[in-house]
Design a protein that fits this description.
Helix content: 10-25%
Shape: elongated
Order of helices and strands: EHEHEEEHEHEEEEHEEEEHE
CATH superfamily of the largest domain: S-adenosyl-l-methionine hydroxide adenosyltransferase, N-terminal
Largest sheet: 8 strands, antiparallel
Number of strands: 15
CATH architecture of the largest domain: 3-Layer(aba) Sandwich
Number of domains: 2
CATH class of the largest domain: Alpha Beta
Distance between the termini: 55 Å
Number of helices: 6
Radius of gyration: 21 Å
């Protein structure tokens, strides 16, 4: 990797904003590379929720330029048997625990180079058993930003941990999926890719069931229905989303992650 004038490092954690944890990561990185450009993806991942971190990372990372380094620390297994890793794929770099937080990135990568972080020369001199984000991952990200080759950090591996991530089931008569995320607006994000849904529907209209809600047809924007009404549409992340205009769909439906989504075909109005 050739170091850029201001190498870009993103940070994703479940640390929140109250404690000194995020500042510690940034301090370690900037001590090694004061020219680093640090970008916060989010520090509001629900505590220890690896799946939620994986979703946020997969949604945001594609919009960063080649050479970006993504540091993800959602690490409930810190200090245990889980590996620490760094990787190169999609013309970007990834640093964090080998616990599935990179599953959505790695599973869709045409080419992937992975190493296990085992070279203490690139760690802080004292490594806490409970804060590898500060003492291992942050310095490795900083050294990557300085142009250190990936293979210097440790041996190559080929078996990163995968998440048991729910995939939708496409059948001739129905699509069966589930809600995988609820955003801060209360929109219910499903695991059904909108492009695949459109192809499956063809000329038919969507007939959707989620909890007590029944909907027909796909909206294009949140303003396609009156305030307080529910709608289904393609969210900016590319998945089918259930929303409530100017209201909170999750609260109105008392619904959350794991709720089943069933889609069938209804006759077209045309």
């Amino acid at each position: 990797m050739t170091a850029a004038l201001r190498p870009l490092i993103t940070l994703l954690t479940d640390f929140g904003a109250r404690d000194a944890y995020v500042a510690s990561l940034k301090g370690v990185i900037l001590s090694l590379n004061p020219a680093a450009n640090l970008v916060d993806l989010s520090h509001e991942v629900p505590p220890q929720d690896v799946k939620a971190g994986a979703l946020i990372l997969a949604a945001a990372a594609p919009y960063f330029p080649p050479g970006a380094i993504h540091l993800a620390v959602v690490d409930p297994g810190v200090g245990g048997q889980r590996r620490a890793l760094a990787a190169r794929c999609r013309e970007q770099f990834w640093v964090g625990p080998d616990n599935g937080v990179f599953h959505l990135i790695f599973s869709r990568a045409p080419a992937l180079t992975l190493v296990s972080l085992e070279n203490p020369a690139y760690f802080r001199p004292r490594v806490s058993a409970t804060f590898h984000g500060r003492d291992i991952f942050a310095p490795v990200a900083a050294h990557l930003s300085l142009g250190v080759d990936l293979d210097r950090f440790g041996p190559r591996i080929t078996d990163p941990v995968s998440l048991n991530f729910p995939e939708p089931g496409f059948e001739p008569e129905a699509i069966r999926g589930e809600i995988i995320s609820v955003d801060r607006f209360g929109n219910l994000v499903s695991n059904v890719p909108a492009a695949d849904l459109t192809a499956w529907l063809g000329q038919a209209r969507l007939h959707l069931r989620v909890g007590p809600l029944r909907l027909q047809g796909l909206a294009r924007t949140y303003t396609d229905v009156a305030p307080g009404e529910f709608l289904a549409l393609e969210g900016s992340h590319g998945f089918l989303e259930i929303a409530c205009a100017l209201d909170n769909a999750a609260r109105r439906l008392q619904a959350g992650v794991g709720l089943a989504v069933e889609i069938r075909q209804a006759p077209s109005d045309n």
